[in-house]
Design a protein that fits this description.
By secondary structure, the protein is mainly beta. The chain is built from two helices and nine strands.
């Protein structure tokens, strides 16, 4: 009989611990700003499920472009471009339960995640184009692996990367010497502040 009672207590103890780790959840809403080497953005992340969020960003990116001339006597045309972008990114914080089980910080969605980043920028709203040549609107869809960690009181950092698809919107009749379809390699390192 003692064996059954001991087994019962062990089972109840296991179930209680399992329920405790399942209580880990992403934040309901996160507002903040993020800064990386090539962009600055305002972000909003909202909870869709216990471990799933929709991360959205509205920001400004920095790019450098060069048009090569066939004639070696003429210098290549270079341009610095600052453009606004919008990003919608569903995220699955798969590392949340493991971090909670190990007693690590899960504040402000501190966990490893998988996401599908969909980013668009238009050529109609450029803030800076020093070269003055045409820039094509662009849409990219990139599956990513990321790491997000909170530190101090409201600060966070993120590392993310992935390989995906990019599409340039342009009219072939205008003589653009570029491709509609591209492979995108996306690697980012960001630091942020949550309000």
């Amino acid at each position: 009989m003692r064996k059954y009672i001991s087994l019962g207590f062990a089972l109840v103890s296991f179930l209680v611990k399992s329920q405790e780790t399942e209580k880990a959840s992403v934040e309901e809403n996160l507002f903040g700003v993020q800064l990386s080497i090539i962009n600055t953005s305002f972000q909003y992340e909202t909870k869709l499920d216990r471990k799933i969020t929709l991360h959205s960003e509205l920001g400004f990116g920095l790019a450098f472009a060069t048009i090569k001339n066939d004639d070696p006597t003429i210098e290549d045309e270079k341009s610095t471009i600052i453009y606004p972008f919008i990003n919608l990114e569903p995220r699955w914080y798969f590392g949340l339960d493991r971090r909670a089980k190990l007693g690590r910080n899960t504040k402000n969605n501190s966990a490893n995640y998988l996401s599908l980043a969909t980013t668009f920028f238009s050529n109609q709203t450029l803030l800076l184009n020093t070269g003055g040549f045409n820039v094509t609107p662009h849409l990219s869809i990139v599956p990513q692996f990321g790491i997000r960690r909170a530190f101090a009181k409201n600060f966070n950092y993120e590392f993310s990367g992935g390989v995906g698809y990019g599409y340039n919107f342009f009219d072939d009749a205008k003589g653009c010497n570029c491709s509609h379809n591209n492979t995108i390699i996306h690697i980012q390192s960001k630091i942020g502040y949550n309000f």
